[in-house]
Amino acid sequence: MQTITKLFILFLVIFSTHIKAQKSNQPIVFELFTSQGCSSCPPADQLLDKVKAEYQDQNVYVLSYHVDYWNRLGWKDPFSKEEFTNYQREYASHFRSETIYTPQLVVNGSEHFTGSNSYKVNNALKKYKTAETTTNITLDNIKKEKERLQLSYHVEGKDFYKITLALTVAARNTPVKRGENSNRTLKNTNIVASRVIKQENSGEISIIVPDWITKRDQLSIIAYTQNENLKTTGATAIKL
């Protein structure tokens, strides 16, 4: 009887880790704006994958936002969205940049540089590992209903302007047939498939699951808060 009780308790602990996430101490959020149609992007994609592998247990969160302005040059990136390009333009306005570019890596909404620059990436990892966290994020009640995910979120703390909840695919290898990366197979990491932006401190949301996602894909929700200057103030993630 005691053995059965212990197994039941263990099951509850394991199951709860899949329905609730609450962790945001000293987060570092790397947002890579990339495209499969850009010949300069693969080294940045590889570096992001390396960061993910080496720092996944250290509150380092990486996201690949695929922009759409390279699509007209021979290859349509299957993960690209106009809304991600618009998000990059929002950063450009914040950084007072007249142009947008790929591969652009934004760190904690505070600085940006070419995403393949390993020297600056390493410096950022050192610089932001003691970054102040002013919000704490809780995700729970996650349910999948047909082509959508339903979940609840709650944000506690100060310096909160908005929260991004991004559905990500852990990795994909894509054979590129045309464009600047023709005849190459490209690996992309933590691809943002869908995202929802909220300015309320708590609520229930619905995230669309695109039809290109398969049962073999490893999915996660990465959530991060930003202040009015787009600086990251907290982050968490949960695997689905």
UniProtKB/TrEMBL annotation:
InterPro entries: DUF1223 (IPR010634), Thioredoxin-like_sf (IPR036249). This is DUF1223 domain-containing protein. It comes from Aquimarina algicola.
